[in-house]
């Protein structure tokens, strides 16, 4: 009779995937909540100027871009875990840099103070939810 105990790594993977999926969904829900608070409730019109044209930022745009950014962050974390022993630290640094670069969009393209502040706030909300939740799932 073999009394060898199998490592618990396979059981940890589904939990890690679930936690990461929930982190992405929570981030998307948080930014959509922020959009609802700013646009229909507070009456802000989040307009961005790009190339001489103005475009309103819709709930669909907020949800889709947050979802895609969250999935990209998840993919980068998984990739870093595969190829480096310091994935958590590297990913956190990259996440901070991505946040700073992402803020250039609303700071340079927001049409008016209210739109700019709203868009910056949405970026900060996304980072405030996604970074700690995904970082927590990283292998140590």
From TrEMBL:
Sorted UniProt keywords: Membrane, Transmembrane, Transmembrane helix
Transmembrane segments: 21-44, 56-77, 89-108, 114-134
Name of one Pfam family that matches: DUF6069
Keyword Membrane: yes
The protein's name in its UniProt record: Uncharacterized protein
